[in-house]
User: Fold this.
Amino acid sequence: MIVDWKHRKAESEVEVLLRRAASLDPELVSTFPRPLEEILCASLAVSFESHRGLTARVVAEVLSDVYGVNDPEVLPQEAGPIAGFSYARGETAVVFTDTQYGDGFERFTIAHEASHLAVEYLPRLVGARQQSLFGATGAPAFYARRDPPAHFFFGEDSAPARGSDLWAEYARLRADREAWLREVVANACAAELLTPHRELGRFLRSLPSSADHRAEVQTRFGLSRRAAEVRLADLGLAQRGDGGAQFLLG
Assistant:
């Protein structure tokens, strides 16, 4: 099994979520498929919104009507589908997911949004809690992140077919190096959160040689078929498919 710096870095980035969850109940991190909602709720008071055909308009309406968030700089205004969206202020957060791609993809979306929060938001929240030189705490930390379907890729050699609905969004993402790297990190951390490389190695060693490793991994870790294939390939344990995007559509 190939374990390079990317997997070790992802492991360290999700440690904050796992450590807090384990302090409440060790089974939250040792049980598979992992209960992602409970793991994330160990760090923040999180509400989860699942909608079929999620769009910016739906996100804006729900944030406004249900959560009282009316800041125009927060609410996504653009058209087009959104696969995931995360909003956080202070100790509370809302995570949106689209159900139309299947359970495996939705689980990956939750893990992806949890990774954004762990890597980009929780350090900011810790800073906001710290007292200033004069004893006052900082303003509540704030975060909002929009993720259209094109953000859910694996590896720099993966891309949607040119001319497809996802290509334009993917091209815009690749043109913004900072945004691209954020998504690379979020996807790597999501994969590690769902399928820890150390646990995956132990699990594979326990299987008989005749077992269908992809199917066993899919069931054990609650992944879509494509997610299981990509995770195995990413760790040097399977061949990538020919052409097309490595999207986690179940």
